[in-house]
Design goal:
The protein has about 190 residues and is an alpha+beta fold. Helix content is about 30%, strand content about 25%.
Length: about 190
């Protein structure tokens, strides 16, 4: 009997539909260029994370808890003191505008799936450094820095893959135009309120 990989082991107990979507997404993300996602499996926390570090975007499957979950986000590196927390300049609004040219309903679904910041009392108080305002189609959302939380339907997985595909296409356009990689930003210096 062949050894089972940590990836296969961690998804082995999931409902078949969720397992199929994770496997499909895993295969899909491995093909992304220029994003180049790197997969890591945390067997203790029971999560699978994909990171495209040059562009500051990640996608995560959480296997533990009462119900599996998945999300993608413009992640923040938050090791150390809050004054050193940083991220890459995110492209959420730019990607939403790019998608809206061909698929306005997808853009709306992603925008409204952005996780709303729970506010001072339920977050990090006045020190909350992850709050980010995003605008789309005349609407504004105060969010937990670009975190898109999706349901578990097949359509939700398709929306996530389509968003990442469109972001990958946007990156190709930026690369062809000679634009540099997104800059590193210290988050305590960013606008964090409406």
């Amino acid at each position: 009997m062949a050894d089972i990989s940590p990836f296969e082991n961690i998804i082995s107990t999931l409902p078949q539909a969720f397992k199929d979507e994770i496997t499909a997404t895993d295969s899909y993300l491995k093909t992304m260029r220029p994003l180049r996602f790197k997969r890591s499996v945390d067997t203790k926390a029971k999560k699978i994370t994909y990171v495209a570090s040059d562009y500051g975007i990640s996608y995560m499957f959480k296997i533990s808890g009462t119900e599996p979950a998945h999300n993608f986000q413009w992640y923040i590196v938050c090791g150390g003191k809050p004054e050193t927390w940083h991220r890459r300049a995110d492209c959420m609004e730019e990607t939403l505008t790019f998608i809206a040219k061909t698929d306005h309903p997808l853009t709306e679904r992603i925008f409204y799936a952005l996780k709303t910041c729970p506010g001072f009392d339920n977050c990090y108080g006045q020190r909350c450094l992850t709050r980010t305002v995003y605008s789309f189609d005349g609407q504004k959302k105060l969010t937990c820095h670009g975190r898109v939380e999706l349901g578990l339907s097949r359509n939700d997985f398709c929306d996530a893959r389509e968003f990442i595909c469109c972001f990958n296409e946007l990156v190709k356009v930026k690369t062809a135009n000679g634009e540099p990689l997104p800059e590193k930003i210290i988050v305590c210096k960013t606008k964090r309120s409406l």
